[in-house]
Design a protein that fits this description.
By secondary structure, the protein is mainly alpha-helical. It has 2 domains: 2-398, Sodium/glucose cotransporter; 401-481, no CATH class. It has helices spanning 2-21, 27-32, 39-50, 53-66, 72-96, 101-109, 111-143, 150-198, 202-211, 223-239, 244-252, 256-287, 289-298, 303-311, 314-351, 357-381, 386-393, 395-400, 402-410, 416-436, 445-462. The model is unreliable at 470-481 (pLDDT under 50). InterPro entries: Na/Glc_symporter_sf (IPR038377), Na/solute_symporter (IPR001734), Sodium:Solute_Symporter (IPR050277). Keywords: Membrane, Symport, Transmembrane, Transmembrane helix, Transport.
């Protein structure tokens, strides 16, 4: 029965995606929904795109082992990212009326910076999309009681997401995200009430977690631990800002005010609803300690699915897996579209500059297909956890794209040479430090890379200019720089 309910839900999702394809008349409709979306749709996209497999499986699994100290990157760093976008970045970026975040780097620093940052952004999506595809495999494996392998489940789920994203683009993402957000919210609220009651109510669960020190963000205040905390916080707080999925949601709004407010609203919803799977998973340790210990030893991401399958009625199982599939597919569709649009606009267009709009739309759809294949292969061969895949995805943009974006928007003296030196300093130092990093090292590689990237921007912009020219515009460098 559960499998049949899930199958019907997936068919409905594909149907909504195909309906959305009727709204796609040109490449701007496909990439950004024609800048015509209302506040509810944009807020739903922000929330649903970020609320993925890591929110339901990865974050709770990490919390039950390490507490808040282990999940500083996500959801707390992600919340900070979306709030910063709404408060600081949405309005100036919206006014520039560009298709991708890569277009900003071209306008501000020229085509070479555009090409490098776009390739970095595209590469960063491998881990995030792969995490969602891996989670789809896990869900189908659990639902079929092992009859469908994780690999087979991943391929089935990937085909479904690809189908509706390929035809409807941003409109498919928007409409399916809105539907999926409702299912996530209703499903998780119901399950929190049901499982919380099984554990004796919310107060015993929260009290028990507090007594175990799970709500501490740092276990000590030694300098090394403080630096590690800062590195974890900024990885997604800053590293997620120069991303096409964030920018696409800003650009899809009807007005800049909607763009800003929807981002902040999505941030609040995201952080709030991330707490519910955490509560459910920790409640499992009080309801069935033996089961939790078993999966802690094997794969802590499986605690919550097995609690639902073994301890709740069919309706609760339908609500849980409906919410879980909604979370995964909403994130997967948005994160498949973003790098594909970036590749077409900022890489392919450089080599085929004379594409008409019809050819450009076809190229974006082919890029979605290629990105799906690439991330599927990455997911099949990666042995990282879902949470690690998502966290690692943003380190590369943190060290290579954050400083050029910040300086390009808010520092008039930033130059093309400065941007190139910032990218080189950040990227090369991070790669070297990642390759040689030991647990005893003081500086986390991504934090060191970010700091060296900032140093590179200063040095490259203030020294005599040998590469390019300084590019300034009222749109690219606001007066308050």
């Amino acid at each position: 029965m559960l499998i049949w309910f899930v199958a019907v839900y997936l068919l409905i999702t594909v149907g909504v995606g195909f309906y959305a394809s009727t709204r796609v008349k040109n490449s701007k409709d496909f990439a950004a929904g024609g800048r015509s979306m209302s506040f509810p749709l944009v807020a739903a996209m922000v929330f649903a795109t970020w609320f993925g497999s890591e929110a339901v499986l990865g974050i709770p699994a990490t919390f039950i082992e390490e507490g808040f100290a282990g999940i500083v990157e996500d959801p707390f760093g992600s919340f900070g990212c979306l709030m910063l976008v709404g408060l600081i970045f949405a309005r100036p970026l919206y006014r520039m009326n560009l298709l991708t975040i890569g277009d900003f780097f071209r306008k501000r620093f020229g085509p070479n910076v555009e090409m490098i940052t776009s390739l970095v952004i595209i590469g960063s999506y491998l881990g995030w999309v792969a995490a969602q595809l891996t989670a789809l495999g896990v869900v189908f494996n659990v639902l079929s009681d092992g009859s469908i392998t994780t690999t087979q489940g991943m391929l089935i789920g990937t085909a479904i997401v690809l189908l509706y994203t390929l035809f409807g683009g941003m409109w498919s993402v928007a409409l399916t995200d809105f539907m999926q957000m409702i299912i996530i919210v209703v499903g998780l609220v119901y399950l929190t009430w049901l499982v919380g009651d099984m554990a004796g109510g919310p107060e015993p669960v929260i009290t028990h977690a507090a007594s175990e020190g799970k709500f501490a963000f740092m276990h000590s205040f030694e300098p090394k631990d403080i630096v590690a905390f800062i590195a974890a916080a900024v990885t997604m707080m800053f590293g997620s800002i120069p991303q096409q999925d964030v920018y696409a949601r800003v650009m899809s709004a009807k007005t800049e005010n909607i763009a800003a407010r929807a981002s902040m609203t999505g941030a609040v919803f995201y952080l709030s609803f991330c707490m519910l799977p955490i509560f459910l998973t920790y409640a499992a340790s009080m309801i069935d300690p033996a089961m939790v210990q078993k999966w802690l030893a094997e794969d802590s991401q499986m605690i919550l699915p097995h609690l639902i399958m073994e301890r709740t009625p069919l309706f609760a199982q339908i609500m849980f897996f409906g919410a879980l599939l909604s979370a995964i597919m909403s994130t997967a569709s948005g994160t498949l579209l973003a790098p594909s649009v970036t590749f077409t606009e900022n890489v392919l267009k450089r080599f085929i500059p004379d594409m008409n709009d019809r050819q450009f739309l076809l190229a974006m759809r082919l890029s979605v297909l290629a990105m799906t294949v690439a991330t599927s292969v990455f997911a099949l061969y990666s042995d990282a956890s879902i949470y690690e895949m998502v966290g690692n995805a943003y380190k590369v943009t943190l060290v290579a794209a954050v400083v050029p974006l910040f300086a390009g928007l808010f520092w008039k003296r930033a130059t093309t040479q400065g941007a190139l030196v910032a990218i080189a300093f950040g990227l090369l130092s991070w790669i070297y430090l990642e390759a040689t990093y030991q647990e005893t090292d003081f500086w986390p590689p991504q934090l060191a890379g970010l700091m060296l990237s900032a140093l590179g921007m200063l040095i490259g912009s203030l020294l005599p200019q040998f590469v390019g020219t300084r590019r300034e515009s009222l749109e690219a460098a606001p007066a308050n720089a």
